[in-house]
Design a protein that fits this description.
The protein is mainly alpha-helical and 157 residues long. It is built from 8 helices and 2 strands. A two-stranded antiparallel ribbon has the order 1-2. It is flat and about 55 Å long. The structure holds zinc ion (ZN).
Length: 157
């Protein structure tokens, strides 16, 4: 494997062999990223806003790609506060002992409370190492993985 971030056709084949159904689950997401890269729309491959983070595992709540693209958030209200979860499992863990987790905050919660001092969304993305301002949002191989199977220069013409 040569790509540091992307998923080339060879890697997708490998993932499908190792994890049957991978393309159905995640392929559509990478189709969108790949097509944006091939068309030179690199800004479309970068995060633009505040992610909604799971109150249990802190993972961004993005749902699944592919034929089962069904991004949704699972929510529980406890002590008049709404908690967001990436899935039923994280929600279930929280609901087993809500008092244990009720005071925990996501990174985004800490931004809004002022615990993390960022005055703009771009500042948050930079803090997280993603986005247009930092190098974190840039592909380490300049999207070389996206060129496989199709020439970027030909696509631009
Ligand atoms: Zn979660």
């Amino acid at each position: 494997m040569e790509s540091a971030a992307g998923v080339s056709p060879d890697e997708r084949d490998w993932l499908e062999r190792k994890y049957p159904g991978w393309n159905d689950t995640y392929g559509r997401y990478w189709d969108v990223v790949t097509e944006n890269a091939r068309a030179g729309r690199f800004s479309a491959t970068e995060g633009k806003g505040m992610p909604c983070l799971c109150n249990m595992c802190q993972h961004s709540i993005t749902g699944m790609g592919g034929t089962r693209w069904d991004a949704r958030v699972y929510q529980t209200t406890y002590n008049e506060r709404r908690f967001n979860f990436c899935g039923k499992v994280c929600q279930w863990i929280f609901e087993l002992d809500p008092e244990r987790y009720a005071d925990s905050e996501t990174l985004v919660d800490r931004i809004y409370s002022g615990e993390i001092d960022t005055s703009t969304p771009e500042g948050l993305l930079k803090y997280m190492g993603i986005g247009v301002i930092s190098e974190g949002g840039k592909d380490a191989t300049d999207f070389a993985w996206a060129r496989k199977g199709r020439d970027l220069a030909a696509a631009a013409e």
